[in-house]
Design goal:
Elements: H1 2-9, H2 13-18, H3 21-24, H4 28-36, H5 44-51, H6 55-65, H7 79-86, H8 88-104, H9 114-134, H10 142-148, H11 152-160, H12 162-175, H13 179-187, H14 191-201, H15 206-213, H16 225-244, H17 258-264, H18 271-289
Length: 296
């Protein structure tokens, strides 16, 4: 009962994020990397020196760039070399992804099935990137990070409002409703709003913030409409893929808004080839992103 009272006192996404500072604080090096990208004088060597101060992050980053997901012909041994090969912007996204997954990897499984959560998130990231490539979005690799982190607000809700999170999960199963609508009924906001607030708190690019914040409501976005629409469509496609594979999906799948397809200049007929390509990339992406202690 006391937990429910505590849940009710948290009234807005900003309060959830600011009240979970220890959980949601990225390593200082990750924030420094984000700032360095705004400095045109930053070199690959500068970038490498900063990241190398965090040995754990360095190891995760090198594991990612040396994975079959990227398929470079020779092994990349240093962060500076990784910057030279894949570029500053993509590496910034990978730094964020590696840091975020590690930051949230220890959340208990009793409120949210973490393996299912990360599998859904990684698949959405892969599909977001593949869709972005097909509509020739600049730096399409950043959409992998947007798709990967689209549901990150769920982790904050589960951490800060566990009883309400359990109630939401129960109602989603009983009513077969959209998760974001049930969250709004219970709390007055949903995981997409919380995720957007978190990424804003991390001082991430506005295109990433908006893609996460509006992935269930693309018509509400006023900026970064392409990114928002791509993650919205990818999320819908991920639900369809899970359904086709008989994954235990306990909620209704939000269909992609026709306006989102129009926004990105693609047709739903692209889904089949994207599903085919995603099947090849998903396992590799999962292996490069997930912490070792989580089963695949």
């Amino acid at each position: 009962m006391e937990q429910q009272d505590n849940d009710k006192r948290v009234a807005a996404p900003a309060e959830l994020v600011s009240g979970a500072v220890r959980l949601v604080s990225l390593p200082e090096v990750c924030l420094r990397v984000n700032e360095m990208l705004d400095d045109p004088n930053t070199s690959a060597a500068d970038f490498g020196r900063v990241i190398s101060q965090d040995t754990g992050l360095t190891a995760r980053l090198l594991k990612i760039v040396n994975s079959a997901f990227y398929g470079f012909p020779s092994r990349i041994e240093t962060v500076s070399r990784a910057v030279a090969v894949i570029g500053l912007r993509e590496l910034r996204g990978l730094v964020l992804a590696a840091s975020a997954v590690e930051t949230f990897s220890r959340i208990p499984n009793d409120v949210l099935n973490m393996v299912r959560f990360w599998r859904h998130s990684v698949y959405c990231g892969v599909v977001s990137k593949l869709l972005a490539e097909r509509c020739h979005v600049l730096h399409s690799e950043r959409l992998f990070v947007a798709g990967l982190l689209h549901d990150i607000g769920k982790l904050i809700i589960c951490h800060r409002l566990p009883e309400l999170a359990r109630t939401a999960q129960r109602r989603i199963g009983e009513m077969q409703g959209f998760d974001f609508e049930i969250e709004q009924e219970l709390m007055g906001f949903d995981h997409a709003e919380v995720g957007g607030e978190l990424l804003d708190h991390w001082r991430m690019p506005q295109s990433l913030v908006n893609a996460v914040r509006y992935h269930h409501a693309p018509r509400s976005a006023t900026d970064n409409l392409i990114e928002v629409a791509l993650v919205h469509i990818a999320n819908a496609m991920t639900g369809l893929a899970e359904q086709s594979l008989d994954v235990d999906v306990d909620m209704l799948i939000q269909p992609a808004d026709p306006n989102a397809w129009e926004m990105v200049g693609l047709d739903p007929s692209v889904m089949d080839p994207v599903f085919t390509d995603a099947a090849d990339q998903f396992v590799e992406a999962l292996n490069m992103i997930l912490p070792n202690h989580l089963p695949r």
